[in-house]
Amino acid sequence: MTLLALERVSRRYGRSSHERVVLRDVSFELDSGELVAVWGLRRSGRSTLLRVAAGIEAPDTGAVYFAGRKLDGGGELGSGIGYCQRAFRGAEGGIVLDELVVAPLAHGVRPSAARSRARAALERSGAEHCATRRLNELDGAEGMRVTIARALALRPSLLVIDEPTNGVDLIERDGILSLLRSLADEGIAVLISAGEATGLSGADRALSLADGELRGSRLPELAPVVSLHRQASA
């Protein structure tokens, strides 16, 4: 079932001679339970694509649909979409568990239930040992797992992550990608970006972005019968 659909989306920055087209007539669909990776070089627009897909930015032209409703760029986070930034801000020095409780509370979840959700999300992401530590004490892999847990605490059906292995030690990267694969296997749609080929491991489909144009199997039914995920596990 199609959960996310981008239809002829374009996005540009600047004006006149300084205008830069980042996305040019981009269309693709993402199903529930599917892991799709968007690969591109630095400044290729892959981060912009993910922000538009998550409803954080509105496209200049075209439309984005999530679960059948049109996103306007006003922000859908916590309403079925979880967006993970690559790193915490330096000022975020609070206790991990306390920080994870904030978002559920803001969405009307009772304090006891919010704390239970936060603990369950940390356990699911493999970061339960980080619960009593401070955010600014985490290493790259721990920070990413906690970031994923913060999104999972809101029980999203779509998880959008910009470069999940960025800043993560090589030895820890496979573990992060395996976590995302397992979340997709449980039914969550996962959309990630990658700046290198190793970030494509476990994906059902890999798309590439260059000069504002998206290339690859844009529809789930057009993907190869043997996916990247199946090849990796064969």
Describe the structure.
The protein is of the alpha/beta class and 234 residues long. It folds into two domains: 157 residues, 3-Layer(aba) Sandwich (Rossmann fold), CATH 3.40.50.300; 66 residues, no CATH class. The protein contains six helices and ten strands. Helix 2 crosses helix 3 and helix 3 packs across helix 4. The longest helix has 16 residues. 41% of the residues are buried.
What keyword list fits this structure?
234 residues; alpha/beta; Rossmann fold; 6-stranded mixed sheet; 4-stranded antiparallel sheet; 10 strands; 29% helix
Question: How is this structure best summarized?
Answer:
A hairpin with a 2-residue loop joins strand 4 (61-66) and strand 5 (69-71).
Total helical elements: 6
**How many structural units, i.e. domains?**
2
Largest sheet features: 6 strands, mixed
Q: CATH top level of the largest domain?
A: Alpha Beta
In the CATH classification, which architecture of the largest domain applies? Answer: 3-Layer(aba) Sandwich
Number of strands: 10
CATH superfamily placement of the largest domain: P-loop containing nucleotide triphosphate hydrolases
Give the class from helix and strand content and strand pairing: alpha/beta
